[in-house]
Amino acid sequence: MMKKREYQQIDPQALVTSRPTPPSRPLPEQKAKQVRRKWEVFRGKNRFYCDGRIIVGRQSGVLPLTLGLILVTSGLFFIFDCPFLVKHLTGFIPAIGGVLFVFVIISLLHTSFTDPGILPRATPEEAADIEKQIDNPDGSSSSYRPPPRTKEIVINQQVVKLKYCFTCKIFRPPRTSHCSLCDNCVERFDHHCPWVGNCVGKRNYRFFYTFIVSLSLLTAFIFGCVTTHLALRSQGGNGLVFALQESPASALELVVCFFSVWSILGLSGFHTYLIAANLTTNEDIKGSFSAKSGNEDVGNPYSYNSIIKNCCSVLCGPMPPSLIDRRGFVPSDDSVQTSPVETELPAAKNDINMCTEGTKGLLETASRSPLLTSSCPQAKPQAVLSVLDPLPEFSSSPASHPPKVTGGRPSSNPPHKHHSHHRSNGKHAISHSHNPANKSSSPRPLQSYKGHKDSKNKDVKFKSVH
Amino acid sequence: MAETHSLQDLRQAAVASKVFVQRDYTSGTICRFQTKFPAELESRIDKQQFEETIQTLNNLYAEAEKLGGRSYLEGCLACLTAYTIFLCMETHYEKVLKKIAKYIQEQNEKIYAPLGLLLTDPIERGLRVLEITIFEDRSIGSR
């Protein structure tokens, strides 16, 4: 009671003094914040470098390891084995190796830094429109919990179910899947590859395929050359041990290549099968279109029923553009849109609201902002792509740091269903999954790599494509 | 046409509602929009005109995604250059998207804005929907 009186006494004065200031303060801030690029307000868990030109998954995770292994092995090859082989055999060897190496690195970087085909989330009006369409046929639904929403359509005389994505608030197009790691819907979702630190989807599948094919050729090539090198050295009558002593780097290369060539070759073969059948890893694992017992009507409605046409359409088809328009500017006029506090891309007025919108995003921002400001200079592909001024917007507006740009919880490492390339049946089983054991032993890259490969060796070896 | 809206006028007009033309997936994953005439537009625009616009858009998207000699050549060339060619060259798809943007702007200026409607380029909505904004019709007999 007494408190109430005091409050009433203070109130009118406080009102008078504070009134003039609030209106003037937000305006200049708003004007300064108007010019923002869309990647800064992106709602998925991707990270962006070089002012939106480069996009990676939430955790680049094992990508440095992949790059490191390739660079170290190839480097050792060129430094220690090539001189001997050039002298004794031919100068073509480093040339071929060089070409393969360049292909591997460029396609790896392309795979990692390209938008895999992310679908932008629905605007509030779209989401409301879809909700209206769903609720209408249902009539009266007393339960609060909405039933799983699916829509059935017919593609090529086959019924396909489209699922509703609660995160992105859209009905997913066919072959689209939501990646829980990146928190995006990705078109023609294949899998999330930890080795490249990104999803593999419609737009970067051809890069991924080029990467694994050229990498399998490179590892096979290095393996062959190193074997030849050691064989030639030991032919001098001194024996293999002496040859290994003279060139210890070759031993390391042999080990790495021996364990990787099986898995990478197998993976290439598996993906060649998928391309020929116009399937994605996701569909293959789920068995969406495989003929189950008693269900002969199920076939792949997307296949052209011709291996050549399937291959051409996947690998040489037109390159669709990125739908998320990372470097576009967030439109500042929101008079047309009447968006709620839970904002979507076009509502720039709610910049300030966005800070308070997602607590998850805000916490992520707070924990990751020092990391992000320092990560652009570290980004390797600056050598490959042109570099812009690194993220001036970040340093100037820490308070309004876009919540969704940064990565997620660093400690989480769950096995995701999209993660696993692993199959337990008689088919080729490559464990593409990110084993927690490997992650914990990452300071010893070679060991973790070997451990990873050992698990693959236990799996059934690749059988011929069926 | 006592008073026709121009695109400029529309910016100040109030939005009455938005209609979303969804994608048509019956032919697979290629980009096609449903040609069904939305009920909200019945009072505003001729059904034939609308369907013609949608059909032209569908044809343009089909052209962008067509699997033919040109796209194969582009794909093979890109593969041979380790995809570095994408950094310097504009793809066929992007060229067609520019054509589509121009077409939509043209349609807006000539046909839709005078009727108090505005088409939003589907690429701005991630090729999910074709958004048609219906503005409050303050004029008398705008047709």
Give a description of the structure.
The complex is a heterodimer of chains A (466) and B (143). Helices cover 48% and strands 8% of the residues of chain A. Chain A is built from 16 helices and ten strands. In chain A, the strands form four sheets. Chain A has a three-stranded antiparallel β-sheet with strand order 3-8-7, with no helix packed on it. Chain A has a three-stranded antiparallel β-sheet with strand order 4-5-6. In chain A, helix 7 (205-234) packs antiparallel against helix 9 (248-277). Chain B has 143 residues and is α+β, with helices and mostly antiparallel strands. A three-stranded antiparallel β-sheet of chain B has the order 1-3-2. In chain B, a hairpin with an 8-residue loop joins strand 2 (117-120) and strand 3. The chains are: A mainly alpha (466), B alpha+beta (143). The interface between A and B is large, with 48 and 40 residues.
Distance between the termini of chain B: 5 Å
Which H/E pattern describes the elements of chain B? Answer: HEHHHHEE
The percent range for helix content of chain B is: 40-55%
The structural class of chain A is mainly alpha
Features:
heterodimer; A: 466 residues; mainly alpha; three-stranded antiparallel β-sheet; 48% helix; elongated; disordered N terminus; B: alpha+beta; 5 helices; Golgin_A_7/ERF4 (chain B)
Q: Layout of SSEs?
A:
The complex is a heterodimer of chains A (466) and B (143).
Chain A: H1 2-18, H2 21-24, H3 26-33, E1 47-49, E2 54-56, H4 63-88, H5 92-113, E3 118-119, H6 124-138, E4 150-155, E5 158-165, E6 170-171, E7 177-179, E8 184-186, E9 191-193, E10 198-200, H7 205-234, H8 240-246, H9 248-277, H10 281-286, H11 307-315, H12 351-357, H13 359-378, H14 392-396, H15 436-440, H16 445-458
Antiparallel strand pairs in A: 1-2, 3-8, 4-5, 5-6, 7-8, 9-10
Helix pairs in contact in A: 4-5, 4-7, 4-9, 5-7, 7-8, 7-9, 8-9, 9-11, 9-16
Chain B: H1 7-12, E1 15-22, H2 47-64, H3 69-80, H4 85-88, H5 92-112, E2 117-120, E3 129-135
Antiparallel strand pairs in B: 1-3, 2-3
